[in-house]
Every structure is written in C-alpha cells, then in structure tokens.
Amino acid sequence: MTFWEVFKELCDKSGKRPNPVGKEIGVSSATIAKWKAGSVPNGETLVMIADYFGCSTDYLLGRVDEPTAVVGEENNPVQPAASTPAPISELRPDGVTVEFLKAFETLDFSDKLDTMNFVRDRMRKGA
Q1: Range of the domain at 111
Q2: What is the reported pTM?
Q3: Which of 21, 27, 99, 123 is the 20 to 30 A CA-CA neighbour of 44?
Q4: Are 105 and 48 part of one and the same domain?
Q5: Residue 22 within a domain
Q6: pLDDT tens-digit series, residues 39-56
Q7: Cα dist from 54 to 57, 68, 72, 94, 99, whole Å
Q8: b or e along 55-82 (b: 16 or more beta carbons within 10 Å of the residue's beta carbon)?
C-alpha cells in the first residue's frame, strides 16, 4: 500500500477525515493534497503521524503489514520490545519536573508536538 492509502485507512479507522488530522498535527490541506497525489511526508512529519496513530513509520510507508512491526536488519518484520514507561512516582522527579508534566498532560496534541519540538531544539543547541 502507498503512504496515502495507509494514512487514509488510519484516518477512517479513527473516525476522522485526513484534513482535520493534518490540522491537528500541524500540516496544511495543500500538503495533504500532495500526499493524496503520491508525495510522501518528510521524516519529522512521518514520526508525528506515527505518534498520532500509534503505529510505526515503516507501517505508514507500507514496508510492513502490522502497525507496530518494524523492519529488521534483513528486511524481516520484527516486533519492537514492549516497554511500559515507569510511573512518574517511581522516577522521583523534582518539583519543577512534576509541574511540567502536569501542565504538559493538559495540552492538546498539537501543543504537545510544539512543546516537544521546542525541547528537542533546546537539546540540540545544548541549552
């Protein structure tokens, strides 16, 4: 399947249309139209879509048939290791971290993506 077919199917399964999903992740209607015409999103956008739908980027690109499968070293699908994040209470974060996580939890998906991009930019700059 093509990227568009997979994206459209995921939208349908979630009961949403492609343009509103695009808006939620910060993608224009023009970009959605390009995908429909055969274009493929860049890496960062693929990751945002995969996070949104809870699937792998390999699935979005039609490289594997299962949403959570990834391509292994020999192009064989393998299941990623299951990992459950530790509860915040077990991490023993400081007060500022707890406050940040509580605030982050209240954000909508688009604002969470903006916040994550800001944090990643700061980390890259070493700030």
Answers
A1: 88-125
A2: 0.56
A3: 99
A4: no
A5: yes
A6: 999 888 988 998 888 888
A7: 10, 8, 19, 29, 26
A8: bbbbbbbeebeebebbbeeeeebeeeee
